[in-house]
């Protein structure tokens, strides 16, 4: 079966086996070509090579201008003036103006579009865009109802399709979706459902300023002419395709890394992302409501050993919700729990722990370290006298238990959030209203609410540092380490084709034949 599947991969990949063309494996087909509509991570990754928004993320998680040249904000924090870059072309040759920005925005805010992020801007999630205007061809103005540190971040979000600016030719005469006519460095050639998506370099593309690749902004130079995103759901087939040369680039599971490295024909990359692998506590549980017990668990974990074991020696411990590559990762955020068996045993004594069983829920998906992390944690906790049993669940069942808050401990992973306020928000909040929340602390919540409004980075840094110090004391969860986005590529490929787990093909080149 594997041979026949690989033969099909070779056949589909064959037309691109040339110097300036590459084949990139997708573990599943994209859901659509409509940015921020009917999407998943695969869809976002492919689309964001073709479309762009007014703003985008930098490598350090902050937001910078993309199709905007600069952004002015009013003193009251309510009005944003986007000065557009001049000479930007759409894939059909039309020049982008503020009229296209306004049309795109109005389309997103039309409920018929079914944009996934409409609630983040129409007031249902707390913030409302009260007006959007195009006073001249090079200027777009947006007004919001209250100050927000997260407004630009919301515009930049990849699950929102980066609020991509599109040409009207993207839709049919009746308003239904056709295909993306965007401004990105690549443009769509064909989507053959279930098989592949092919794109080609947009030769009239104008890069934003910058001398290097920087998140979704900075230097964006398409060095490859043609790209085929080939649907290869089976990881063994993708690995065989990498080894044979039929596939140039693919995401892999970490355990395949050593074998691929040893081949001598494949490079393995292991960049980190803002994904958080964590141990969650139900702080309303009769046993785990005792903060000293939670602190004892933290002190009993040899985090460097645990992380090395479950990440093939690649990961590095990070107890902060803020990843090391963030602009907000300072000396405070780089502190963490210290492995101290004597302290753990003393805390257990102080907590009055009498050997009660603690059930630790995990799943066995290959793409996350839930189960191996649970096994390592169990061994370390049992070594100091904490009675832990692992309960393995299917992912859907575990997610349901997480959302309902019906567990004691859980080995879990949070998806990437680049702004620290959004990263903290994933696990902070009132349990009575949102049972999935982990840390229900009104004083801490007040700090987070303030950090979500203030735009000044220095003031926000102080708030995030104080939040993290309180988190280390309360220990509502233990962040273990950040995501390892393992990928592999043939020796002829230069550059890093993934960022935050998504395909990013500008700056990637082919050498040799």
List the helices and strands and how they pair.
Blueprint: H1 2-13, E1 21-26, H2 41-47, E2 55-57, E3 63-65, E4 68-73, E5 79-84, H3 98-109, E6 129-136, E7 139-144, H4 151-156, E8 186-192, E9 196-201, E10 213-214, E11 217-218, E12 226-231, H5 235-244, E13 249-251, H6 257-262, E14 266-269, E15 272-281, H7 291-300, H8 303-310, H9 341-351, E16 358-362, H10 370-383, E17 388-392, H11 395-404, E18 409-414, H12 420-425, H13 442-451, H14 457-474, E19 477-484, E20 487-490, E21 493-494, E22 498-499, E23 502-503, E24 509-510
Parallel strand pairs: 1-12, 16-17, 16-18
Antiparallel strand pairs: 2-3, 4-5, 5-7, 6-7, 8-9, 9-12, 10-11, 13-20, 14-20, 15-18, 15-19, 21-24, 22-23
Helix pairs in contact: 1-5, 7-9, 8-10, 13-14
Main β-sheet, spatial strand arrangement: 17-16-18-15-19
**Which geometry do the CA atoms define?**
globular
Q: End-to-end span in angstroms? A: 30 Å
- Label the structural class: alpha+beta
The residue fraction in helices comes out at 25-40%
Instruction: Please summarize the sheet with the most strands.
Output: 5 strands, mixed
Q: With helices defined by DSSP (H or I, 4 residues minimum), what is the helix count? A: 14
Short précis:
The chain has 513 residues and is an alpha+beta fold. It has 14 helices and 24 strands. The chain has a 5-stranded mixed beta sheet with strand order 17-16-18-15-19, with helices on both faces. The chain has a 4-stranded mixed beta sheet with strand order 1-12-9-8, with helices on one face.
